[in-house]
Every structure is written in C-alpha cells, then in structure tokens.
Amino acid sequence: MRAFIVRRLLIALPVTLLITLIMFVIINLAPGDPIDMFVGQQGLKPDEIERLRADLGLNEPVYVRYVKWLGQLFQGNLGYSYLDNQPVIHRLAERLGPTLSLMIFVILLSHAIALPIGVLSAIRQYSWIDYLATGIAFFGVSFPNFFAGLVAIYIFSLSLGWLPTGGLETMGAGFSVADRLYHLLLPGMVLAFREMGVLVRYTRSSMLDVIRQDYVRTARAAGLSEWSVTFRHGLRNALLPLITMLGLMIPRLFAGVVIIEQIFQWPGMGRLAIEAILSRDYPVLMGLTLSSAVAVLVGNLLADILYAMADPRIRLSEKR
Amino acid sequence: MSSQMKALSPSAVPSQSFRRLAWRRFLRHRLALLGAAVLVCLTLMAMFAPWIAPMDPNRVDLMLAREGPSTAHLLGSDVVGRDVLSRLIYGSRVSLSVGLFSVSIYMVLGTLLGCIAGYFGGRIDMTISRLIDAVLSFPALMLILVIVGLLGPSTLNIIIAIAVLSWPEVARIARGQTLAAREETYVLASEAAGARPKRIILEEILPNILSPIIVDATFGIARAILVEAGLSFLGMGVQPPTASWGNMLNDAQSLSILESMPWMWVPPGLMIFIATISINFVGDGLRDALDPKLS
Amino acid sequence: MKKETLSTQEPLLQVQNLTTEFRTDLGVVRAVDGLTLHIPRRETLGIVGESGCGKSTIGLSIMRLIPDPPGKISSGRILFEGKDLLQLSRRDMRGIRGNRISMIFQEPMTSLNPVRRVGDVISEVISLHLKLSRKDAWDKAIEALDRVRIPSPVLRVKDFPHQMSGGMRQRVMIALAISCNPTLIIADEPTTALDVTIQAQILNLLNQIKEELGTSIALVTHNLGVIAENAQQVAVMYAGKLIERADTISLFDHPLHPYTQGLMASVPRLDKGTQSGGRLKMIPGAVPNLLNLPAGCKFAERCPHTEERCRSEEPDLSTPSPDHMVRCWRYA
Known about the structure:
The complex is a heterotrimer.
Chain A: H1 2-29, H2 34-42, H3 46-55, H4 62-74, H5 88-123, H6 128-142, H7 145-159, H8 177-211, H9 214-221, H10 226-263, H11 269-278, H12 282-310, H13 312-315
Helix pairs in contact in A: 1-12, 5-6, 5-8, 5-10, 5-12, 6-8, 7-8, 7-10, 8-10, 9-10, 10-11, 10-12, 11-12
Chain B: H1 18-28, H2 30-47, H3 49-52, H4 84-120, H5 122-137, H6 140-151, H7 155-182, H8 185-192, H9 197-234, H10 245-250, H11 255-260, H12 262-290
Chain C: E1 13-24, E2 27-39, E3 44-48, H1 55-62, E4 71-80, E5 83-84, H2 90-96, E6 101-104, H3 118-130, H4 134-147, H5 153-156, H6 166-178, E7 184-188, H7 196-213, E8 216-221, H8 224-230, E9 233-238, E10 241-247, H9 248-253, H10 258-266, H11 308-312, E11 318-321, E12 324-326
Parallel strand pairs in C: 3-8, 3-9, 6-7, 7-8
Antiparallel strand pairs in C: 1-2, 1-4, 4-5, 9-10, 10-12, 11-12
Helix pairs in contact in C: 3-4, 4-6, 6-7
C-alpha cells in the first residue's frame, strides 16, 4: 500500500511540473503582457515602460523566466501579483476558503440527494422514482449551469426575495455562519444540480449492475429478505465505484465553480482565475495552475486509496 | 453476463442482423426520436439562417434598444437594438459548428491514437498512455480559459482548445476496446493470414469498437456546445457582434436586465438547453440501441 | 415445518403442469411447457438436456427465482411438504429458500459476494432461518465449512471469496446450501465451470452429503457422464418439454426416445473404438427456435423415425414399461 502511494507521488511530481511548464509557455505566448494593462491606466512614457518591463524581468526569454519561477517555487515563494503586489500565496489563501466551502457543500448536497434516488430507481425500475431519476439526470446534465444560475437568481432572489443575489456575506454584518450559509445556498444548489444529474445516472447504473450479479441471486436463493439482499449485499458493492467518482468530481467542479462564482460574485478561486486572465496577472495564474493541478492529482490519489481500502479484493490481495 | 439468463441461450433464439435490431431499438426510444427531430430542426435552422431570420442579426438600432417583444421584433431587442430572434437563429450556427467540428477532430484523433496504442502495445502504448494521463491531469478549464482568454477569443481557438483537451477520453475508450478486440478470433485469423496492421485496425477492429465511441462522441457534442456557451458567456468565447447563444446571455449579468428584460436572456438559455438535452436524448437512445447491456 | 416420515415412495417434491414463460423483444418463449415431474426422497434426480432446453428454468421455478419481468410462471403447481409452493406468500417462500430447499449455481467465481466474508454470509442465512444468536450461527457456519471438507475451517470462515480457489468456492456454496439441513438441494450445473479433477471431488461431496443428511438432489447438467455416475433417476428435457424419464440404469441400457438415443450415441467412448467408422455420431439439425416452435412433436425434424402423425400432433407421455416414461408416438 505504501509503495503504491509513493509510486503515485513520484509520477505525480513530474506531471505537475510539466503542467506548470506548459501553462507558463502558453501564458507567455499570449500577445501583450501585463505592462500593456498598466499603460492604459497610468499614461507612462516609453522608457519608463521599458524600465518596468526590465524590473519585472519580462524581456527575458521564456525558459529563463520559467526556471526563475521554479527556483522561487522551491523556496516556497509563489511570487507577487502584478495587480496589487500582494504575495500570490495570500491571494490564493484568501480565496481558498469560499471555494472550498462551496465545493464541500456541493459534494454533500449532491450525494445526499442523488444517492438515494439513484439506488431506489434501480430497485424500482419503471416506477415514478425511476422517471424522477431519469428526469434529474437529463436535466441536470443538459441545463447549462450559467443559465441555471441566472434563472435561480431571477426566481429566488429577484422574484421571491428568499435568497441574496450573491456575495459571500451581507455587507456590514459581522461574520456569522448562518449568514454565510444563507449566501451559500443559491450558488451551491445551482452547482449541485448538475452534479446530481451525473451522480444519479452513475448510481443507478452501478446499482443495476450489482442487482444482476450472480451473488445477489445466491443471496436470494438462500432466503434472505429483499431488504437484506438489496442493502446488505447489493448496496455496498454498488457504492464502491462511486468512490472513484468522487475523485473525478473535483476537476468537474473546478469548471463549474469558475462560472458560478462569476455570476454570484462569490470571492473564490474561480473568480480569481478570471480576474487574473483578464489582467494578465501571470504569477497568480501560475499559482492557480499549480494549486488546481495539485488538487486534481491529490483528489485522484485519494480516491484510489479510499477505493483500495474499501475493496477487500485489493486490500487483501495475497492468496493464502 | 450473469448466468441467470442462460435459460434463454442464443441457440434457442436466433440473432437477427445487428443493424436491424439496433435500429428497431432506437426507434422504440421515444425521447431519442424527439431529440433527433429537434436536432434536425436546429440544423435546418442553422443552415437556412439567412432565409429564416427576419433581419440582419448585427443591425444596430439604438432607437429600438431594450424593447420587449413586438411586431417589429418578435422576441424583442437587445441592449443595442439588435433583433433577438435573428441573433437566436444565427446563434445556432456557432453552437452547432463548434460542437460538430471539435468533436469530429478529437474523435478521429483520439480513436486513431487509442487504436494504435491498444493494438501495438509495448513502448508505443506506454507513450500514448502517458500522454493521455498527462492531458487528463490538466485542469481543463484553466487551460481553455488561458488559451482562449489570452490567445484571443475566436471560434477556431475554441474548437482547437476543446479538441486538444477532449481527445484523451476517446483515446482511452478506443484503447480499451482495441485491447479486448485484439484477442478475438477474427483478428487472430487475420493476423495469421498475414494481413498488415493498418488493414486489421481499419477493417477488423475499428468497425467493431465504434459503438461506445459513437455514443461518447454524441455526448461530446453536447459538452462542446456547453463549453462554448460558457466561454462566450464569460466574454471569452465568440465575441460580439457575432451572435452566439452564450454571449447573448452575457448581457444578463446586469441585475437590471436580468430582472426586467427576460426576453434577452431566456430564449438563448433555453436554446442551449434544448439543443443539449436533445443531443443527450439521442446519445442515450444510441447507447441503448447499440449496446443494450450498457443501459 | 415438521419433517414428515412417510415411506420413500412418496415423492419429496411434485411438479404438476408447470409452464414458465419469458417475454422477449421478439415474442414469448416458453422455457418450460406443461412439465410434470417428481423428485424422489433421498435420491438424486438428474435433469439432462442441451442448452436452452429449460432444465435450468425448472430449478429457478421451484425456487421462485424467475425474474419478473421478463419471466413468469404462468401455470402449474409445485407440491412440497403438503403445500403448493406457487401459492405461498413471498414471505413464506423466503422461509423455504435456503432452509428447506437450497440451490447451488454454476459459477462459483461470481456467485459469492466479493466484499463480504464467507462466514458472514453463511451465518446470516443460518441465523435468519434457524433463529440462532450471532455467535451460535458463526459456530454453525464453521461446522458447515467442515462438513464440506474445507481444511482449517476456523481460519477459512473469515476469508473473502477471492482468497479461495474455484473448487473451494463451490464448496462454500454447498456449505451455504446445507447450512440449515434442507431436504432438497437443486444443483444447477455445479461442476461445469470447474476442472475435471475438482468436478469429481465436488460430485463425491454432494453424494456424501446426500447420505449424511438424507437430502434429495436435483442435478441439472448437460453431461451424460455426470448423470450416469451420480443420479439414480433421470429426466430428459427437450425444447421445454420432458421427453423421457426413467431410472438411470434403464435409461442407459435402453433409451427409448430417439433424442435420448442420439445423445447416447454421440458421446465419445473409449471402449467403442472404430465401431462407427471412428467418427462421432451427431444428431442432425439444430434445436428448434423457441419463438417459433413447430406443431406436433418438437423433435420431429431431426428424428430418424418421423411419421405423419409426428409432425401434426404432439404425443403425450406414455409408460411403455413400469417407471419408464417417454413422449413419443412410437410407444403410445
């Protein structure tokens, strides 16, 4: 087990670096650079512009700049944002919380709803639950999440006035968990909607698969009740593949988070990404790339580890 | 397949031609048929846009800006007075072309690479597989945003970006299927008869593994449409004045428009939804038809 | 349910006019058609036939494990211990499964739950039917494993299925089946998926169990050799119908139905040598399409003795000699 983890980490390291290298190159391929953004605002003279460029090291060749960035990275320094000169790490840290809370909420909510519906729809095929499940699956996956966000704001904020239109907390009020939750609800539900669609489908097919297995028939042939057959013998097996799904959820959520944070003015890493792109804030972009690559890799690794722990076929793979 | 149904083994019930059975199954899938019908309409709409649209989608008319539905503008006008309905119709061109082109590219690319990896094995397989893993580990949206945001938002860039990021999934499927098919007797027979690898891959293996790839490609078109729409919504996709369903929604980021001018954002959003769900219905029907064991 | 002490002449289980159907994309298939059969006490009844003849469906029907949809037991009675199993409530039927009647299946590799310990599964069944505490049930599970001659049962009981070989898993299936001392075990091709040497072991084990526990066994297989060695009575199935029934010795000595004769002749035998020119004899033609059965005798197309009547009317079962039934116009 330990060897497995070490091996995965060893592979993950060069892959992560490769990702950062490619990102760096692409970012720097873009026409124009951060100074162009400045110029518009400050009205600087040409030689001052050149001096700024030299200061920031922007006229050195790409590979030199990458190596410098790497060097800084290994010293624990992610650089400073071009925009406000804040350490990149700070910018990331302050945005991490909101995004994390959003993601966790979405993961919990989508599983809480999708799992039971998926399982029940597999057991009671062609019943109303089955149709509900199929409906959620199609709608969730097909409804564009930005549109869903707009619709949600329109209905729940503007028309009904139940929930706020965005933001992390009510202005002026102090920190309060209830307030945060209140603001978390709408963006979280919108994001969770799509995840539910994917999950319901997956759960349902996993459960259907398990129900058809021979060992379920064995359990029935031994006289066990439907409840025991379904839940004690079937469910456990059906839930196993869902653990890997968890790992796959993270990259998918990243994509959704970017858009949803934009719509709901949620101060998370997704919005940071867009701000950084629009202002060509290279250090921040690199920091974001690094952290999201790491998150994806860690997520996958975790999923594999959890799966190995849960499935006795992998956990105890020596024959006696 | 569980031994439960061994009671009805193939020797007792003869098999009909695969295509015929598949077609029958597809036709029974009402949702898939509905989806297919809608898609045909959308395609026709895209193709004949210049003749269907009531007016030039890019024509600005500040006098009639922000007006609700009326006889002049059946679906109202947007912030600079362009006709929403015409833009809606022309917008289908963007969505469908992005969907079709990007998927075609990565389907061909992914299938080829996957088959090669699966068939030849060894170093070739290892290289391609590592490449697949590397691309899959990329934070996809970041890459798309960066490419499109920095290199310039254009339909072509979007298509390329989607294709570059999506080929590994297809390649993985193709590789897995090829690995399985490679052991089949008909392949071994071909090899024993001295057929060259290119022929074996193209004529023996490929036709038999197409089913899951076609299904994935269908769903892929839907995903591509959503990606383009999302990017355009953020302002990083197709740029105005070209009409895209996504960038029509961009206006709605202002709360006042959102609240009081629904004709500007509800139709394009609905169109994206309708297109996507129709494709998903068709994909589902295809999946059931081509391989009922998967459903 | 009390164990009844009737003479061994009274059959343990009586199937009467059983018909089991399956709805498919292309029509309705009668896997079992009007079957009347009895299973004797303390003996092994072999049920033999080719793939698709309905022999597996019989066992599943007795256990009421036919998946519905697409299957359905459309008519008949199954009499067991004074009751019609088909009329029992689902709850009562569950009380019978694994308790009075058990079933073992063909694929030991997939028939055991991979994420549960072997002991957990067996003791769950035991404590359900015999109402024992967990500890007692666990002990009985070890006992059952011992009964099927699994070495070190105390250790093995904690194993997961993937930690065992195919033969051992089949033994575990048998242990599960006998854990509550059933009076009937339905064995559906129990050895087809195993190596030949293991096959012999498992079949011997079943016979020993039959002696020790006094159970009856319904042995479903397509292998005549297995039948010859292990069954006292034989029922031959074809296209969903029972076409011959006799005790093993009579059947092998003088098979009456042309299909049975064809089956016997097509088995390769070392002692026959080059009697038929060295080639294996085949029954010409193929099993009829169950969706489109011919009128009359279902075997008529392939039978060397077909007459006019065979194609238009289906024969009933007749009894040309005592205890030997056959469905053929030649003996009507």
